[in-house]
Amino acid sequence: MYDHDLVPGYTFKHIRVERRPVFDTRGAAVxxxxxxxxxxxxxAEMNSYTTDTIKEVILAFRHASNxxxxxxxxxxxxxxxxxxxxxNTREYATRYAGHSGEYRQYMRLFNDMVSAxxxxxxxxxxxxxxxxxxxxxxxxxxCDFSIAADTARFGQVGPKHGSAPDGGATxxxxxxxxxxxxxxxxTTAAGLWSAHKAMRLGLLTEIAPVVKLDxxxxxxxxxxxxxxxxxxxxxxYGESKTGDALAAGKALLAKATIDxxxxxxxxxxxxxxxxxxxxxxxxxxxxxxxxxxLEHWDKNKEQxxxxxxxxxxxxxxAGFRAFEAxxxxxxxxxxxxxxxxxxxxxxxxxxxxxxxxxxxx
Length: 361
Description:
By secondary structure, this protein is α/β, with parallel strands linked by helices.
């Protein structure tokens, strides 16, 4: 049998690729079969992806596709704080800000990463072990299933930091949660959804408890997990707590530990269900379902790439540099709009400097 890997024998340096057991219906590891785990391994920077990371993710998904003994590909991040926070803003600010042509080539790689997920010849499960935001949300939605820790949070931040969520969110998110919720998340970047809210909206397959107190799992104490209506008739199940309830939740969380065992067991249960199917029938069904995403992705990805590269000369250049500058990590949006209304241009030598956040004292 031929080796169809793009780079046979490649040693991964920026991510981890592991073969892990797949279990039968009795819970026994199946001999000769496994799942391929693709793990973003940059926990110090919330598992953000660099250029080198993206290259390896592309290779890893091709490797999983070609692995004859693989049942599923599981895409996740190291640690418990983040699946992925998106593109590495340090790299954006220092390498790509102001360099449109370079960012255009970077976006070719990013687009290929999303396409590699959507073209994987195995079912792809996103194991959401923490924050899934920005580009992390986009590559997560490219996966076929998402199983999340109930402490995970989800959302887009592009318009707050100088970008548009055109790496998949504007293509995929409305397919999960509907146009109104997708519009709100993509445009305002106002707050992140809890895993409970994401589950309620239809973004997730399952959520699992990971907060352990006195030896027992408890629901995320920062989120309202009982379903009721507020005084305006709105469902508040899954919303983040506020005020005294939030303070009490934080105090409780400080006493607890994080245990991802239930999350892993939920992933294993799904891979067992997929194991117990005809493989060609399953992947054909998945490929047919992926067409809904691909209809938007293939239509928009190249023009999105072109726009995002040009935007690196204006708003993205300012936004990513502001994020790395510290302080509020956001530009002065009011001052920016005022100056633009008076005719200022991005070529003006003082515009970017005038709207930068003040460094944290």
